[in-house]
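Repro case for the chain-ordering regression, as requested:
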Amino acid sequence: MRIAIVGSGALGLFYGAHLQRAGNDVRFLLRRDYDAITKNGLQVRSINGDFHLPVVSGFRQAAEIGPVDLVVIGLKTWANDRYPELVGPLVGPETMILTLQNGLGNEERLAELFGADRVYGGVAYLGANREEPGTVCHLAAGRIILGPIMAHNSGHAEELAGLFSAAGIPCHAVADIQRARWEKLVWNIPFNGLCALMQRPVDVLLASSKTTEIISRIMREVIAAANAQGLREPIPDAYADEMITFTRAMTASYRPSMQIDRAEGRPLELEALIARPLQAGQDRGVDMPLTAALYALLDLP
Amino acid sequence: MRIAIVGSGALGLFYGAHLQRAGNDVRFLLRRDYDAITKNGLQVRSINGDFHLPVVSGFRQAAEIGPVDLVVIGLKTWANDRYPELVGPLVGPETMILTLQNGLGNEERLAELFGADRVYGGVAYLGANREEPGTVCHLAAGRIILGPIMAHNSGHAEELAGLFSAAGIPCHAVADIQRARWEKLVWNIPFNGLCALMQRPVDVLLASSKTTEIISRIMREVIAAANAQGLREPIPDAYADEMITFTRAMTASYRPSMQIDRAEGRPLELEALIARPLQAGQDRGVDMPLTAALYALLDLP
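-- result from build under test --
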C-alpha cells in the first residue's frame, strides 16, 4: 500500500516507520528531519526494541509525492489551515485519509475539504518524542483506536486497523470514533492543560491530593460534555477514577505534549484540545468552570 | 499615645510614619530596615506628598519596647506563630491590639493568646511597597476599616478610627469587621491568587474577557462563602462587578502582594488569604471549585 505521512513529528515518524517495516511503500513529508532522514534513514528507539530503516522516502512538498492510497496525518492541530496545501496533492479518487491528531474538529475539516466518504479518525495512545534529527524515541503504549466518519465505511475501517495490526501496532476499529475522541479528551484536558500551565509532570500533580481533586473534577466536566453530545453509549463517571489510576502507573515524570510545547515556546494545541470541547459542552448547556479557567489561563498573552 | 508597630513592611512603616507625624510616640519593631532607620530616619514617598521623619524609635526585640497603649500588627500572616514572642512583651493590662493583616484567622488567634477584649481587626486598602531600606513608597489608596471583636468595644473602635483619621488616614469603624474582611477577600482571592499564579499584573488579566469571567466567578464563590457565615448584612452578587470596575481604574500594571512575594521566592499568605476562606465556605456547604483549584495550584511544590 502506498502511504503518505503528513506531519512527521514523533507520532508520524513512529507509525510511518512501523508501516514501512511491514512492507508498505511509505512516503514522509519532512521538514526538520529531511536532511538527516534522506541521508541516514530513520532510527526508532523503542521500549519494544530498536530498529533502523536505512532507506526512507522523504519529500519536502506534497506535490512531489502525488496521490497515494492512504494519508496518515500527525500534524499539530494549529497547522490545520495548511490541509489544502499539505494533503490536497496526495488525494486521488480512491485515497483514504486517517487523522491521528488530537482533539476535536479535525475529521470535520478534512471532510469539508476532501469529502466525508474518505475520512477516518483515529485516537493514538502513544508516548513518543523526537530526539536528534532522524531519531524517534518510543516511551510508552502506542495503540490506535480508529473509525470511519460515514457508517457505511466500517469495513474499510476494519481494513485500516488490520494494516496497523500487521505492522505491530495494536489497533482496532470502532463504530463511534467520537466517543473514543472524548475518552482521550478526559485525560488530555486536565493533564495536558495543567502540566502545561504549571510546568510540572503528571506525577507531581498527582502527589497532591488537592490537585488530584481538581483533575478529577475537570475529568467529570469533560465526561458531562461528552455525554451531552449524544454518544451511542455514555462515558461513566467512574472513567475519571480509572484514568487517574492509569496515570499513577505511568512512567515517572511523564510530560504531556502540551507541557513540552509550552516549555519550548511552541504554539499550543489549545483550540482542538480545549477550546472546541469546551464550546461543544457549553453549546449543550454543560457548565465547565474549571475547563474554562484552564483555557483562559493557558490562552493569556 | 504610645504605639508599637509589629511587622514593619510597607504597611507597618506607612501607617506608623503617619501616626508618628501626628504626634504619637511610635516604636517600630524592625529587622531589615533597622540600621537604615535608626541612622537616617524614615522616608515616605507618597502620592499625597513625600515626608521624612528624621528621628524614629527602632527596636530589634519586643522586650526592649515593653508595654504600649496600642499594638498595630502588619506581619505577614505566615509569621503568626511568632505572635507570643513579637506581641507578648508589648501587652500590658490596658493594651489594645489592632491587626491590619490580610485574610482570616488573625483576630481569633490574637484573642486566644491575649484575650478577645483587647483585639480589634482592621482591613487596610493600601497600595505600598518597600524600596531601599528606610524608604516606603505609597502608590494607591490607604483607607482602613476597623472594628472590635467584642461588640461592647465599639466605642474604643471609634476612638481608634479617630486616631488614624487625625493622622491623615481615612478610617472608619464598623460593627461587623468580618463582613469587611470578606469584602476584601472578594478582591484578594482572585487577584492575589491569579496574579501570583500567572505572574501577570491585574490589567493583563482583565484584558482577557475569558480571564475576567473566571475572576468574576471566583468572586461569586467568595461572596457565597461570605454570606454562608451569617454576616449581619449579606454581600450582594453585584459587588463582584463593582470590584472588577474598580480594578480596571487602578494604576496600570498593579501587582498584588502575593504576585510580588512569589516572584521574589518568599512564602505566600496562602493559609490566611485562600485556605481559611475556602475551608470556611466548604464547612457551610458552599461549593468553591475555582477557589479550590487556585489554592491547589499555588500550593504545588
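Ordering looks correct now. Residues 7 and 75 of chain B are 4 Å apart (CA to CA).
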